[in-house]
Structure formats: C-alpha cells, structure tokens
Amino acid sequence: MLIYPCVTALGVAQYATGTTAVVGYAIVAAFCVCYALTGVSFASGRQAWGWVLLGVMAVLFAAELPVARNFAFYLAAVVVSSAAMMLRGYMALIIASGALAALVVPWAVRPWRSGPGWMEAAMIVFTSLMVCGFSEIAAANRALLEARAEVARLASEAERTRIARDLHDLLGHSITVIAVKSGLARRLAESGSPRAVEEITEVEVLSRHILNDVRAAVSGYREVTLAGELARARELLRAAGVVADLPTATDAVDAAHQELFGWAVREGITNVVRHARATRCTVSLSAACVEIRDDGTGTPAPGGNGLTGLRERMAAAGGTVEAGPAAPGGWRLRVTLDGPGPQGPGSATKGISA
Length: 354
Description:
alpha+beta
C-alpha cells in the first residue's frame, strides 16, 4: 500500500513548486510513517492508537488535497481501505463515501480544471475490496493455524489417554495374575508341594511378558486376541480357585471384533478375581456379544478405570457395555455390538468346565 503515497508524490511534483512542494512531500512522508505505525498498533492489539493514527492519516489526506489535487485521492484509498477493513459492518458505506468524494471533488473544485474523478473512484473501490478480501484470507489462515494447533493438542491428549487406558488394562490384569499365582505358590511352599517352584517360574515368565506388554502398549503395537485372553483367563481362574466355564472356540466371533472382545474378557476376568469372591465364572460368546458372569458376592465398581476404558473402546466401535448384578446372584459384564445375543446352552460356542 505504500506505493499509493509514492503516486501522490508524483502529483506534488506535477502541481507544486518551492515551499509548497516541500510541504507536499513532508505530508506524504508523514502519511507513510503514520500508515506503518497504524499497522503495528492494530497488530499489537493497541487499537485505540491505531484509530488515532488512522484519523491523523485522514487529516493528512485533506491537507494534501490543495497540493497534489486529484493525486491526493491515492492517500484516500489507503485511509478508506483501512477503515473498511476495520469496520466490516460499515464497509459498503465507507467505500461508497470514499468513491463519491473522489468522483465529485475534482469536478466541484473549479480551479483544478478537472472533470469527475472516475479513475480515482474506481481505484478506491477496487483497492478497498482487495484489501478486505486479503484480510479475510489472513483471518482464515489464522483460524486454520489455530485449528491445526487444537487438533495437535487433542491428538496428544488422546494418545496420553490411550496409553493410560492400555497400561491400566494390561498391568491391572497381569499384576492380578502375579498376585494370585504368588499367593498360590506361597501356600504350596508352606505345604511342601514341589508345585511351588513351577508356580514361581510362571510368575517370573509372566513378569517378563508384562515388560513386553508395557513396551508394546507405549509404542501402540500391542496385540490382544480373544483366544489368547481366554487362555489367560482359564489359567488365572484356575490359580484363583474359580471353576472356569469358558468357550472352547472363538470362530463365532467376527475377526474384526476379536480384539474388542479380548479386552472385554480381560477386564471381566480381572474383576472376577479381584472383587467377586466367586466359585464359578462363565463366559458366553456370540457373533456380536460377549458376556462374563460369576456367582460371587462382591460388587465391582462400575466407575473404575477398567470399565471406563472398555466403554470408550466399545463406544468407538458402536457397541454398548452393561455391568451390574446378575439374577439370581453374582455379577454380569455384557458387551454387545449390532447383532444377535449370546448363544445359550447347547450351542457351538457354549463353554465347558475347566
């Protein structure tokens, strides 16, 4: 926009000489300084100073009219476009007023011997529209940068939530297994059974698996399978002294749902061992549902981190989680996707006692 005051300086050279020309050039120089300071003021948030400087620029334009005549309207283009950009609600009125002044003043001031300022009016209109359009693009770019920053922040937060959820699910289950097996090994050692060494060896192996699981969870590459979780559940329930009624096959579950159901089995079995004080646990499977039921007297807390993480996983997959007391007694965890419910006794997926 500083090219416009330079054009006005050409008008000063054309219409003024001597002291008048010096005054005209000084006005142009002062206008350029005010224009630069106005931009800095608005950019730094000091809008009051920006409006004051814009008013000074309007006064300088009026003072330049007798010197540069119609060339002074190049200064008016800067003032009008800046005011239109700042006052969007009055943009049409401001631009129309500036164009009308550029059209009428050269014709009304007879000593100038000039007709209507069509070119100056057109210049004010198109310059103002260009500046307003550019400001819209700049505002959209700023909004885009802010949106990208917000997306990055949300992605980082989601990743932290994922890691926290996965670590809870992995460690909660595995540490429960270690605690149960360690207790079993202690009881076997007290009774002098040689199986104590076997149980302690399994605890050592499981501890190494936990370390690998944690590393995999942090990296986002850990794999949970329904068949693997059922095998772990069978071993954990056996060590806890709970009769396990588990499915012998997972073919009925769609491959896309195997990992989700694996997380459900992990959470359900962990809660049975930790809280239920049960003597029997049954897992039922179907293509779209998994249900873990026990006959215990404990009540797992429905607001725990494990159930919260499971609900988040299922909500992302379009499923639901039900957790609550079962009739006639015990506790039931049921995870359902779109499709039929668990198959009853006698079906191909009904569990057998372990």
